[in-house]
């Protein structure tokens, strides 16, 4: 009726809902800021080519077997997915040599952080994590009225000793982002061993290994094999969003003691892991050769991105071990982000991660990385001339 009378739907008066209607922790929350989509940037700026190096997605798409699995299940998408993700959990349990009851799935590892927060945190409880780091640790705690205690990094790495000192009787969860997002740096096996030797028994440690498959450093421990199976109070997170190329399907998993898995199952929405996500993840597990190819390609391109950044006066945090690099530019990083955006390159300003003077750059293909270098030639050249 509004359109027939010439009145635009947006002109209609909607009911007023005061901010006081919402819970105080939600009112004060600063939400996670996702990276800009390529299509949006092209539309806004009229660019012919845009390269996205902002969200740590892998530069390659799903494995061929995963695409075939998605196509096979498409005719049955009128049916709900398997709410228990039985086949995927069974395959992951076999892969890691753990019982079925020790595997939980979620909408990416991020969904599992949310689930752990819901299951464990009451108002007044505390979590501890390094900072700058992955924002969801802090955001999901604040949603529930819990208090995040953030411990500054030391030399761009998690300061595990200082984190032990930040733990109190109210601490329920400690997050160790390994490697750390956004800095791309890791802690050594000896440092993690010392942390687990010192962490109090009432704390559950969440070892976030979202980039596990990219890393070939011999001093990088497998949290499942070396800590969970050794009886440590730990939840290990992994994901199919990165090297497996399934970020758009949102599927990750946790390996933990059965009571943790049971609690995650209680708070998880019934059908949040879609059928295509489950089938694609299952199909991806069998292609060890393609995982290795992608790891080696990333290992070859990461030093090239580091070189490109250094040539333009940007010094990445090192040693970086995953598929991204972090550069502190010494001032608000949004102007540099905007300049690169106008050149068709999307990087991530890390304000939401606790690093307002830095950018994070994902390692792309050789062609994408060369495009980044050309954009920096123009941007940093302009900055140098202006100075």
Largest β-sheet summary = 7 strands, mixed
Distance between the termini: 59 Å
CATH architecture of the largest domain: 3-Layer(aba) Sandwich
Q: Which ranges are low-confidence, i.e. pLDDT below 50, for 5 or more consecutive residues?
A: 382-387
Strand order of the largest sheet: 2-8-7-6-5-3-4
| Alpha-beta classification | alpha/beta
Q: Enumerate how many helices there are, as a single number.
A: 14
* CATH-defined topology of the largest domain: Aspartate Aminotransferase, domain 2
Q: Compute the number of strand runs.
A: 12
> What is the CATH class designation of the largest domain?
Alpha Beta
> What is the CA-atom radius of gyration, in angstroms?
22 Å
Overall mean confidence score, pLDDT: 92
CATH superfamily of the largest domain, called what?
Type I PLP-dependent aspartate aminotransferase-like (Major domain)
Query: What general form does the structure show?
Result: globular
Overall tally of domains = 2
User: Can you write the helix and strand succession as a string?
Assistant: HHEHHEHEHEHEHEHEEHHHEHEEEH
Instruction: Please give the share of residues in helix.
Output: 25-40%
């Amino acid at each position: 009726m509004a359109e027939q009378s010439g009145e635009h739907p947006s002109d209609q008066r909607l009911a007023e809902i005061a901010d006081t209607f919402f819970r105080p922790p939600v009112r004060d929350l600063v939400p996670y800021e996702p990276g800009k989509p390529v299509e949006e940037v092209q539309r806004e700026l009229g660019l012919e080519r845009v390269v996205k190096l902002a969200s740590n997605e892998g530069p390659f798409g799903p494995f061929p077997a995963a695409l075939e699995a998605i196509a096979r299940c498409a005719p049955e998408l009128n049916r709900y997915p398997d709410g228990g993700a039985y086949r995927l959990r069974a395959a992951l349990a076999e892969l890691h040599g753990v019982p079925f009851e020790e595997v939980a799935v979620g909408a990416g590892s991020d969904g599992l952080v949310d689930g752990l927060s819901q299951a464990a945190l009451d108002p007044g409880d505390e979590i501890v994590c390094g900072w700058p780091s992955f924002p969801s640790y802090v955001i999901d705690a604040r949603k529930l009225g819990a208090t995040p205690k953030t411990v500054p990094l030391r030399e761009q790495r998690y300061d595990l000793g200082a984190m032990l000192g930040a733990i109190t009787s109210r601490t329920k969860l400690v997050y160790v982002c390994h490697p750390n997002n956004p800095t791309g740096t890791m802690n050594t096996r000896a440092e993690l061993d010392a942390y687990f030797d010192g962490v109090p028994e009432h704390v559950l440690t969440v070892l976030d290994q979202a980039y596990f498959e990219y890393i070939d450093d011999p001093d990088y421990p497998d949290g499942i094999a070396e800590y969970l199976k050794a009886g440590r109070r730990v939840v290990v997170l992994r994901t199919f969003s990165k090297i497996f190329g399934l970020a758009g399907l949102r599927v990750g998993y946790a390996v933990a003691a059965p009571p943790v898995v049971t609690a995650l199952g209680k708070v998880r929405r019934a059908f949040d892991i879609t059928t295509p996500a489950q089938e694609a993840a299952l199909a991806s597990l069998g292609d060890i050769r393609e995982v290795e190819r992608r790891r080696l390609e990333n290992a070859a391109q990461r030093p090239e991105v580091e070189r490109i950044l250094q040539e333009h006066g940007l010094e990445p945090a090192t040693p970086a071990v995953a598929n991204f690099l972090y550069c502190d530019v010494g001032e608000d990083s949004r102007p540099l982000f905007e300049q690169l955006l106008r050149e068709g390159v999307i990087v991530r300003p890390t304000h939401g991660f606790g690093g307002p003077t830095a950018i994070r750059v994902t390692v792309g293909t050789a062609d994408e990385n060369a495009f980044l270098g050309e954009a920096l030639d123009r941007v940093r050249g302009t900055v140098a001339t202006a100075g």
